[in-house]
Write a structure and sequence with these properties.
Elements: H1 2-8, E1 11-12, E2 21-25, E3 36-40, E4 47-48, H2 56-59, H3 70-75, H4 80-96, H5 103-107, H6 110-119, H7 130-139, H8 150-153, H9 157-163, H10 172-175, E5 183-184, E6 191-192
Antiparallel strand pairs: 1-4, 2-3, 5-6
Helix pairs in contact: 4-7
Pfam family, one: Pkinase
Organism: Nicotiana tabacum (Common tobacco)
Protein name: Mitogen-activated protein kinase kinase kinase 2-like
């Protein structure tokens, strides 16, 4: 919802990555005991839609390159759907526990990783459910003209399960296949999702 809000105000975040997603305890505890809320942080690279600025040098500091969209690498400008690409990379990382682009690629030369992002398809975890797979594929569509917008994605069943108060947040069935492990992780903090 944060991405939708930013885009509706005419801005693009331009640096969505795990370090810029903050987790806070929520004052209201959900029916299934979940009491966290997420906030998007670090708007230092944000820009207005249609504004063309050269952010290439600052984006390549740290691991941010792993979350940058192919159209930014090719054309040097961001579009709202560039934030959606970053979201897809983060979701894959949360589900699989590894970055979409391997650590070997990330530690290699920038040009090599850039080439991977532009030319190769990202690694999507195989053991996710059909609903999660569809959502991730819509986020990681290579052609930015065909990639879903935040407005489109907020209507997707994967997101609606989170927003619908009548459901028990999101079920393991919605996230994984029957053969999946029930532990999610990332290179930051592994955690048990379904105790």
């Amino acid at each position: 919802m944060a991405i939708l809000h930013i885009h509706s105000k005419g801005y693009i975040h331009c640096d969505i990555n795990p370090q810029n997603i903050l987790v806070f305890p929520n004052a209201v505890i959900h029916a299934n005991g979940v009491n966290n809320r997420l906030k998007l942080a670090d708007f230092g690279s944000a820009q207005r839609k249609g504004e063309k600025t050269c952010l290439k040098s600052c984006m390549y500091l740290g691991e941010s390159l792993c979350y940058v969209s192919p159209e930014f690498i090719e054309k040097g400008n961001f579009q709202p759907v560039s934030d959606i690409w970053s979201l897809g990379c983060i979701l894959c990382e949360m589900i699989s526990g590894t970055m979409v682009w391997s650590e070997a690629e990330a530690k290699g030369k920038e040009d090599g990783l850039e080439l991977h992002i532009v030319c190769k398809h990202p690694k999507i975890p195989k053991d996710v459910s059909a609903i999660a797979m569809d959502f991730i594929k819509k986020c990681l569509e290579k052609k930015h003209e065909r990639r879903c917008t935040a407005e489109d994605l907020i209507k997707h069943p994967f997101v609606q399960n989170f927003l619908d108060a009548s459901t028990d947040w999101i079920s393991k069935r919605d996230m994984f296949t029957a053969h999946s492990r029930d532990t999610l992780g990332s290179h930051f903090i592994p955690f048990k999702l379904f105790p």
